Amino acid sequence: MINTARPEHTRLAIVAALQEEVSHILEHMHSRKCETIAGRNFWTATYQGHAVVIVLSGIGKVAAAITATTLVERFGVHEILFTGVAGAINDEVSVGDVVIGTNFIQHDMDASPLFPRYLVPGYAEIAFQADTHMSQRLKRSSAKVLSQLERTISIEIVDQFKLQGAQVHEGLILSGDQFVSDEWVRQGLRQAHSNALVVEMEGAALAQVCKDYGVAFALMRTVSDGAGEHAAIDFTAFLHAVASRYSALIVEAYLNDVQ
Fold it and tell me: Contacts for 244-248 with beta carbons within 8 Å, 24 or more apart?
């Protein structure tokens, strides 16, 4: 992971791919104003006493890159925090767990034989890194929320999705323009990237933009499914029942973490 120097007064961007992932946050913002750019609503507001920009990136790497670039160029953000859901490809990761990304690989990038597979041409390393300071703060916040889960989410939801004992993991995240719902695809990703924890569709693109601009970046993913044949069903149910609440609680804890 990298450390990015940050000014004394930092504007934070909170980004998600889907409305449900930030709906609770949007409901509790104060003095919010909305500006529409490139078809996206950018909400500038006060949340938990902090000046923030909140936006839905849309789904996929291109949409995420457009959003991140706009946040830097038009809003002058110095930190980007992404919150959302992902599918597990590691057996140690379960539904309801939280994964903090430390590094990110575009699993569908292949410019071989001109360049090594997974390497984005023009970069020295295959993986893009998260910011150490932000990621550790996000890890602490996630652990705090999960330790108090049964006090903040109804017992019916906890039981339905078997959230008891949910854990925080940190490590490699795979990104690609593909919703993984095929067990053969999942197994292929596991074989190619044995240390990867989850697969999603935006993280590596955001990390790439933040690297180019020198902006601090961190990402948390709530594990919604096993990225297998039941992923679409599990994802839809989990998104509405759990993901939005997780995001709000963890982002709130993150903003209140003063370490």
Answer: 244/20, 244/21, 244/22, 244/23, 244/24, 245/24, 245/152, 245/153, 246/98, 246/145, 246/222, 247/16, 247/21, 247/22, 247/24, 247/25, 247/83, 247/84, 247/222, 248/22, 248/24, 248/25, 248/28
228-247: average pLDDT: 70
**What is the mean predicted confidence (pLDDT) over 203-225?**
95
**252 part of the active site:** no
Number of structural domains found in the chain: 1
Question: Where residue 97 sits, what CATH number does that domain have?
Answer: 3.40.50.1580
Please give the structure tokens belonging to residue 192. Answer: 């190619």
Residue 190: both structure tokens together: 């596991």
Q: Is the pTM for the entire model greater than 0.85?
A: yes
225 assigned to active site = yes
Query: 102 lies in a domain?
Result: yes
Quick check: is 118 in a domain? yes
Residue 239 lies in a domain: yes
Q: What is the pLDDT of residues 34-90, one digit of tens each?
A: 999 999 999 998 888 888 999 999 999 999 999 999 999 999 999 999 999 898 999
Of 131, 170, 202, 225, which is the active-site residue?
225
What pLDDT sits at residue 8?
35
Q: Could you say which of 20, 21, 97, 202 is catalytic?
A: 21
Calculate the average pLDDT of the chain. 87
Domain that holds residue 113: 82-256
